Amino acid sequence: MNLLIRGGRVIDPANGLDAVADVLILDGRISRVGPALSPPGGAAVPTLDATGRVVAPGLIDMHVHLREPGQEYKETIATGTRAAAAGGFTAIAAMANTEPVNDTRSVTDYVLAEARARGVVRVYPIGAVTRGLKGQALAELGELAEAGCVAYSDDGRPVMHSGLLRRALEYAQAFGKPIISHAEDVHLAEGGVMHEGFVSTDLGLGGIPSVAEEVMVARDIALAELTGTPVHIAHVSTAAAVRLLRDARARGVAVTGEVTPHHLLLTDEALRSYDANCKMAPPLRGKRDVEACREALADGTLGAIATDHAPHALTDKEVELDQAANGIVGLETAVALCLTHLVRERILDLPTLIARLTVGPARILDLPGGTLTPGAPGDVTVLDLEQRHTIEPARFQSKGRNTPFAGWACVGAPVATVVGGQVVMLDGAIRAERLG
Ligand code: DOR
Description:
- This protein has helices spanning 77-86, 105-118, 141-147, 162-175, 186-189, 198-203, 210-227, 239-250, 261-265, 287-299, 314-317, 334-343, 350-357, 359-365, and strands at 3-12, 17-26, 29-34, 47-49, 54-57, 59-64, 89-94, 122-125, 152-153, 179-181, 194-195, 207-208, 231-233, 255-259, 304-305, 380-390, 409-419, 422-426, 429-430.
- The model has no long low-confidence stretch (mean pLDDT 97).
- The protein is 30% helix and 22% strand.
- By secondary structure, it is of the alpha/beta class.
- A hairpin with a 2-residue loop joins strand 17 and strand 18.
- Helix 2 (105-118) packs parallel to helix 3 (141-147) and helix 7 packs parallel to helix 8 (239-250).
- The protein has 14 helices and 19 strands.
- Strands 1, 2, 3, 4, 5, 16, 17, 18 and 19 form a 9-stranded mixed sheet that branches.
- The chain is globular and about 65 Å long.
- The structure holds (4S)-2,6-dioxohexahydropyrimidine-4-carboxylic acid.
- (4S)-2,6-dioxohexahydropyrimidine-4-carboxylic acid binds next to loops.
- The site of (4S)-2,6-dioxohexahydropyrimidine-4-carboxylic acid (DOR) has 11 residues, from loops.
């Protein structure tokens, strides 16, 4: 696939580039980035005019729940990848908490085959750490790596058994894959529906204390240090977890972290609405935690923004708060929310935001994309920083409508998503049924 993207402000953090330029994609790969490019030999190449817009490497969401196989009423690989394309993501990593769990080659094969047949963006499966996510015996780690898994995670559940996690880290090293930790001590979190603090006391709701996350982050860092295998902490949400990560990274421990847009933008005050769309794991925390996460994102302690896209059906959410499923959708809101509430409010500069959505996750998962370096996959996201719109769940490509951001006014949006030189989303419309 060939494409010439003309005249945009090209921001490629991996190469320190921020300049008006053209991007030429030939045979599905980045060929050149520079002023006034033309295809070799004057060949006719489709053109995308990006004048007045920002051209970034294709965005990567390293934490997505696609729900297929097994919970197709919540999301499928087809709808989840359309949601990704609509949200400006050219690649997503798919968590293993499906039914069956992605703990064997056959499930990984299925996810990859379905993504090839019906997906519109790249899908990188994540295999389970333990069989059935039960935390009792290791999954087939070697087989999963061979089948194409890029990391291991029991996300949705922690691996509570520290001895088993140690073994998993030792095995994972042989396959060169990191382990992604859902850092939550289930005993400390037991009975909680929201962050433990003033608001939970005020509302009389069971709390999940910050230490439930912090003891596990401390343990995971200790095991990463012992084994030398990289550990990535999913959805970091507390100030002390950030501090632990910053200290460990300064000592050279192979540990990384991600943060979600909702943990950057909302606090536990949102629970005063009793809206189940404000319930997730980890829970929305306090103001100081949000500030710490923002600082850590800016200074690189947290190397990635990931959505933890967790689609649920109405029936999973429209129940009492303690019965409601955890999680919110994020693929179609993340970029607009971050542009509006982080970049416009000068909490993060635009190149740093783009870095945390591209080269950051690419390095953590050792993925081929995340830059516009010649030879890289021809994946590009075009952003319009001025586009005004209101978040309307009814218009999502995702089957999930579970978001606390409905009705939020945003300025800035992805307007084109290009995968391997193919325009899969233009002005909000999905243009490709399959990658081919
Ligand atoms: O809120 C969440 N929902 N957090 C998780 O870790 C899992 C996810 C899900 O699978 O719904």
